[in-house]
Design goal:
single chain; about 130 residues; mainly alpha
Length: about 130
């Protein structure tokens, strides 16, 4: 564990490219699982905790943007095509027709706070 964490001021988890790429690749998978569990969750608590957790794990904004782009390119379309379209009701059609609003809301409600958390953490806590 010391090999991964370093001496406390220079955490190797943020310096290791392999670990950061692994975290970046894990994000779309976790988002896909949360999208699948959304009807059962009835709360925004778990997605918020996951988002904050990944903000603490990403080493810099490059990994945050890579993860987010990968999520929008892979997880969301796969969820829409294979999960949501197979369910009863109009959920898939409502999702597609609302996609521009969902993207704008995502940017302001999720992406900007994530950017701020990563920037603040890097500036004040990882000197």
């Amino acid at each position: 564990m010391d090999d991964l964490m370093g001496d406390g001021t220079n955490l190797k988890i943020y310096k290791s490219k392999k670990i950061q790429i692994s975290i970046s690749l894990l994000y779309p998978i976790v988002v896909f699982l949360i999208l699948n569990l959304a009807p059962l969750l009835h709360s925004w608590l778990l997605p918020a905790i996951v988002s904050i957790g990944f903000c603490l794990l990403w080493g810099n904004l490059r990994y945050l943007f890579f993860s987010t782009l990968l999520m929008w390119i892979t997880s969301v379309p796969i969820w829409w095509l294979f999960i949501e379209r197979s369910r009863e009701g109009d959920g898939a059609e409502i999702f597609i027709s609302s996609l521009p609003f969902i993207i704008v809301a995502f940017v302001f409600v999720v992406l900007l706070p994530e950017i701020l958390l990563v920037l603040v953490r890097n500036k004040y806590f990882l000197k």
